[in-house]
Amino acid sequence: MPEVLERLxxxxxxxxxxxxxxxxxxxxxxxxxxTLYLKNWPVEKIIYLKEGKVIFASSNIEDDCLGINLxxxxxxxxxxxxxxxxxxxxxxxxxxxxxxxxxxxxHKELEDAVNKxxxxxxxxxxxxxxxxxxFEEVSFDLNEPITLKSDIATLIYKGIKKMDSFPxxxxxxxxxxxxxxxxxxxxxxxxxxxxxxxxxxxxxxDGKNAVLDILTRLSGDDLETIKVLYALNCIGAAVPxxxxxxxxxxxxxxxxxxxxxxxxxxxxxxxxxxxxxxASATAFREAAxxxxxxxxxxxxxxxxxxxxxxxxxxxxxLVRAIELEPFNEDxxxxxxxxxxxxxxxxxxxxTFEFAxxxxxxxxxxxxxxxxxxx
Length: 374
Hints:
Blueprint: H1 2-5, E1 13-14, H2 20-29, E2 34-40, E3 43-50, E4 53-59, H3 66-72, H4 78-91, H5 95-101, H6 107-125, E5 132-137, H7 152-162, H8 166-172, E6 179-181, H9 185-189, H10 196-203, H11 211-217, H12 222-234, E7 238-240, H13 246-256, H14 261-273, H15 277-290, H16 295-306, H17 311-324, H18 329-341, H19 345-358, H20 363-373
């Protein structure tokens, strides 16, 4: 991973720290125009927005191209595909235009196919559990005769329904969250044709039931239920009781500003001092992703994660810090503390002993090792 990170500039941010559905909704709600760049090696995708609407998307994956999309959905035959590719390579014309000229597709069918292709590219990103992104707010002249017609809310609802990771959604919408329908929910909900199960879920959103209560009261698939709740939350139809726009503002700030690792480190330190450990972890994680060779960024990321009981990720961050600065006694000491919290007594003892070899007067390592022997 480090060699991959070196290819990223400071504009890129960690996707899992902001979550793709919420990024897309924030861009749509704020009426942004520009390009959203997404990377999840080896995949690279670009989404084009105009005044808050997704109008086009591109991908470096062959399976996402128009011809393969049509072939997969049996809209053209294998023979038609290869004949159109032969003419594409010979003439340099657009693939869609060639398919129409050959009589393989009517113009309306081509328009539907391009819309389906673009939509599929966007929807595929919802299943990513990690990656990197940045948004460039810039006007552009997109030389595409056919553009997407779906709005952001529809795309987000469809995309979240395709997600298949329960932890990914649960982390975005904690089970203790109490949801209530937003004042403008009526207008938003008219966009969709809900199944009976979805209607039952919506009826339980009353400002009293937490997500866990709704899951308990319904006998259906928990993953499908929480996907509906998260989708309604993302599009603004269902909001946490007593909610604020702070998360939306945080995402917009992340999208809009180009943060230096130094600025992120400073921000993380301030948050850490104020005991806002989840937020400080996000800042340190970003700083470390931009400058992966700075041991201190990984160290303070670990300290933040320890305070949120995320011991495995904290361990990984400290191991990285030690790789960069192998004779820093403090790193070994804190790694030993993490091993104790995870129940790895033998590993903890060896780690404290190594810290004491570097500095025999390290009181924290001495005390921790002594307590283990009692």
